Each structure stands twice: as structure tokens, then as C-alpha cells.
Amino acid sequence: MDINTVFVIGAGAGASKEANLPTGRELKDKISRLLDIRFDFHQQEHGDYQIVNALRELVKGEDGKNGDINPYIHEAWHIRDALPQAISIDNFIDSQRGNEKIAICGKLAIVRSILDAEKNSILFFEKHGRESATKSNQ
Asked: Where are the domains of the chain?
């Protein structure tokens, strides 16, 4: 392959549950929480801060001025509201093919969810020294 590709295997049916990785339903629930981005005036009260920061960087103008993330927030809510009925996050993004904002919000949430899940799984290890509890207890 000429491009960077990430394969996510086993989330749907829970094949990796024994490694403390989420099932498909748990992944959808986590993504919904991450994309439940809400503000009280200018203070973020819900949703994932890193996703919001990534969206802010995305819409920043060439002059360095902040752009409007509201269209992305509305698509994040669209994902949040639709996921309970969707087969999977991948299926939902595919069904919205052509909607770049949904693709970006969905993919950001997938990455955040999987990185967090891996960090809390028994398979996690740090490259630089500390290993997971499983490895260090052996």
C-alpha cells in the first residue's frame, strides 16, 4: 500500500473484549459522548477537548485568526444522535459519503476512542520503558 492505513479488527462482535477493548456498541457509546460537544457561552462543558482543538486548528485562517467550528459541531451532533440506530460508526460515515465534516468528526472520534481503549487494555505497553500491568506482573 502506498498510503498509511489503519485496520481496526474485532470491535463489532467483541472479539477483543477479553483484552479490555470495547465492543462495537461500547465504541459507538464512547464516540457519542466524545461528540456531545456543548458550550456554555465560550466555556466547553461537554465533549472531547482534543477533538474541539483539532477542529479549531482545521478552521484557522491563513492569517492565524480563528474560524467557525459551528458547522463541524452540528455534524458532530448529527453523528451523536444517529449512532444509536447505526450498525457501526464506519457504516454511518459511509452512509453520509460526500459530507466531509461528518467524515472528519467521525474519524477524529474513532481515533480518540481507540487510542483511549488501547491505553486501558491489557495489550498496552509504552515504547520507552514502562510496560502494561500485565507484562510487569509476569
From this structure: 21-136
